[in-house]
Amino acid sequence: MNAVDSDNRVTTEKTSEQGLLGQAGQASRYTTLIVTTMASFLTPFMGSSVNIALPAIAHEFSMSAVALSWIATAFLLSAAVFMVPMGKVADIYGRKKMFIYGISLYTLSSFLCGIAPSGLSLILFRIVQGFAGSMIFGTAVAILLSVFSPSERGRVLGINVSAVYAGLSLGPFVGGVLTDQLGWRSVFMMNVPLGIFILAAVLLKLKGEWAEARGERIDLTGSIIYGLSLLALTYGLSILPQLFGFILIVCGIIGITAFVRYEFKIDQPVIYMGLFRNNPVFTFSNLATLINYSATFALTFLLSLFLQYNKGYSPQATGLILVIQPVIMALFSPLAGKLSDRIEPRIVATAGMIVTVFGLVLLIFLENSTTLSFIIPTLALLGFGFALFSSPNTSAIMGAVEKKYYGVSSAIVGTMRLLGQVISMGIAMLVFSLLMGSVEITPSTHAVLLKSITICFSIFSVLCILGVFASMARGNLRS
Questions:
Q1: Cα→Cα distances 205→29, 36, 147, 193, 200, Å
Q2: 67-92 confidence digits (pLDDT tens)
Q3: What's this model's pTM, rounded to 2 decimal places?
Q4: Which of 142, 168, 171, 144 is nearest to 331 (CA)?
Q5: 26-218+270-472 sits in which CATH class?
Q6: CA atoms within 13 A on the CB side of 386
Q7: CA distances (Å), origin 375, targets 144, 321, 352, 372, 382
Q8: Do the beta carbons of residue 425 and residue 304 sit within 8 Å?
Q9: Taking the domains of the chain in order of start, what are their residue ranges?
């Protein structure tokens, strides 16, 4: 970097810092925390609720296990494709503005999902919901970190992650009760008043705006290359072992390679590649995020099927059982966040990944005779591992970049999370396709369903072991 560029960057950072202090004076920091925390609660609440409702949806629309998994995957795929471009747009035009658009569209799409007349229309509405989710994911954490100081980062991220896990906690229970009492459509309708409440809180209480990259142009060419490449890659993963799936994956890899080369050449890229260059904390923390979610996201989906089909539990009972894991996450996430303010995030996050490995290995041994005395402690162990990993890992990522890149960095970590979720569901779909094919789940297929589930957990255990090494390799955030 030459002297002129260095001076310009220093000037930009000082101006940005002054602007942030002014904005912090206009907007109550704790109002910001409450609003972003509510938004962080909304999307996982929906996801975990829907997982419990899947067997009821399959019954109404006569969907196979593979088709059923598309209800979750369609949302993730759409959100992953638009996450980074929306984060960049938010950095330029305003994070609050993009946040409002996201909450509004998310609420509308939730209503549309609730009145969907067919399985295909439900999947299409979930795509719209994923696009709305990308606007929320790419802005909420960035807004939060624009207001709070670096010394408070671990604490507020711990609270934010705790809200995510609170959504995951209430989702299975509420989703199970709603599905049992009012039908699966009520699960989607439940999000409408929540979305309206959050939107009203933002419009009435959240003052100020955050756009440290204001004046920069949108990298439209890069955004298109990125979106199409990620779409090809993630969709290809989801339809393996079809030949077209392999072709799409190759095209996606070629596209991502071309995207990276293009981004290095232009002045105002959609992803500033300097974030990865000579920044092992940022690079390996994002890799750890990708691996962690690849190894764990399908857990609730698989256990929901196991408990309802193989064990014969009702949606409500299944929700009560699955609530154990996110409750433990919610309880320990603030503690893990505070711990990462004092101890290197690398140490805390890696410990969480190791605990998660043990939990996944235990699930390999699931059988029809497995009792709740085995399942519940295992879910508690996994919840503790997730809590130790998530907020320290996010703290390490955001602490490794300048404030002007908070929006795009938040979007990058969100993309890693979503891509990991798509990979996790893709692995489950691949195993189901190979062992079960496109057939409805009936008592005659319960044995092969259980075999498919345990194979998935075997694959996830190996992935998570690789994640331990990625987490350790990041180096220290504080010298």
A1: 11, 12, 15, 18, 8
A2: 888 888 888 888 878 877 887 788 78
A3: 0.75
A4: 168
A5: mainly alpha
A6: 27
A7: 36, 8, 19, 5, 11
A8: no
A9: 26-218+270-472, 219-269
